[in-house]
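Quick check before the chapter quiz. The format below is the same one you will see on the exam, so make sure you can read both the input and the output lines.
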Amino acid sequence: MPQNFDQLLVDLIHRWNNSTAPRRSEAAGSRWQDPLIEQIIPDGASVLDLGCGTGQLLARLVARKRIRAQGIELDPDMVFQSIERGVEVFMTDLDTGLQGFPDHSFDYVILEETLQTLRRPIDVLEEMLRVGRVGIISFPNFGYWRVRAELLLTGQMPRTPALPYQWFNTPNIHLCTLQDFLQWAHSRNVQINQGHSLVNGQVRPLQTGDDLDAEEVLLVVQRS
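Here is the expected output.
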């Protein structure tokens, strides 16, 4: 990764001039993180999915891993679809919705592509690590080189496959970089057990320099 601003600027311009649109690895109706999450979570685990959407991931985990599933979702239409899939859902706002759960009441707590939409992301992270023994978190990396280059070269808010919205209609209100998250984890004695990156449409283990290279990341965390 470039060590100073001049090197970073040259590298971003070079990448921009020689880039093509990134490919996406997920199939329709599925996210690239879902197969990883299925591999990580063991059979029979208790799982809480924060912002579970239509319940597709939890239903898949119930069918394939025989987990004990609980979802949290605010959107009424998505709650209804989750219930139709047989997933138990608690309808509430994540920013205030975890106080009723006892400490370590779940083996795993999932926060998939939701962190950046929260009003109080740090509070939710703290709560998920209180409620769950292990957290699985994924989010778009605002330090991704294409995001940096587009803001630098066009002067407009970046739009990528992971961040497709315009500035006036985006649900993403607290974007962060991979380095931002790692610094928070270090400051709160949160251990990173695993890391995975989406780079050029391909999923790989987290590497040094992925704050620049990774479009999205998935991290498995727990209290040290």
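If your answer matched, good. The mean pLDDT is 89.
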